Amino acid sequence: MSWNRPLFLPVILLAAACQTHGSLPIGDPIVRPSTLVSTSLDGAVALSWSDEPFRLEPSRFTAYRVYSAAYDIDRDRCDGAWALEGTTVAPEFIVGALMNGRSRCFTVSAQATDGSESARSPVRFDTPRFQTNGVALLAREMDPAQAAFRFWRDIDGDGRAARSELGRVGSASAADADFVVERDPTGRIFFTPVRPGTRIAVWGNAPVSAITDIDLAPSAGYTAGGVEALPGWGYAVEMAGPDGYKRFGAIRVVSVGQALVVLDWSYQSDPGNPELIRAD
């Protein structure tokens, strides 16, 4: 059975060099950002925060400083030295050149015109994950060779997700597919789980505008039966891993035709980590 990578246009992400910064200056000459929000991207994390330092004291504000550190997800703590990712005058920043499935902590401070630095914002952790937009699948009744999807197929058997092993489109007869696209007699299109341990849940109670709107995979609501594919709606997929840990993926349906589904997907390669996209 052959599995093929679909063609897609790569998304170009901004990457920032990481510089070691031994300690963070603590003080409060200028107000700190009071909130910090992160959005997981493919090999990157997008950060945004409250802009009080500039809004409240524009004459004293110089720039924001963005820091990161390793995160130990099992112990729920930041681990190791903080590093300066970069500076910006806007209340947003993309930390690039990150490894998918590797969690990191993030925090932000404000710098004043005299060179002093504020206290840090609340700390957030995030885990970049793999993502691809615009994958087309055909219903098994139309073209069984392009009807099945597998988030991760461990081709080389090393237990680690490589980009070439992700988002595999294949035959509806494959017993190791995560799900297959099917069309019922009324013309409705369904995602139907195939291999043991794969279940699907509708995410939320309304359509989502982008794959990055889907956050933590839910802890309940999954089914091993078919789920109707509806344009704009999001879905979480829970899968059994070869090491006994669950894996999680997400789908957003871009469009549905008579026998064609176009979808965006993301996959969290960190074993057992339900964080798919966003942490508020």
Describe this structure in words.
There is one protein chain. This protein has 280 residues and is an all-beta fold. The chain has 2 domains: 19-126, Sandwich (Immunoglobulin-like), CATH 2.60.40; 130-279, no CATH class. It is built from 1 helix and 19 strands. The strands form 4 sheets. A 5-stranded antiparallel β-sheet has the order 1-5-4-7-8, with no helix packed on it. The chain has a 5-stranded antiparallel β-sheet with strand order 9-18-17-16-14, with no helix packed on it.
Task: Characterize this entry briefly.
By secondary structure, the protein is an all-beta fold. The protein has one helix at 52-56, and strands at residues 19-20, 36-41, 44-49, 61-72, 77-88, 92-95, 104-112, 124-126, 130-138, 148-152, 166-170, 179-183, 189-193, 199-203, 227-228, 234-240, 246-256, 260-268, 278-279.
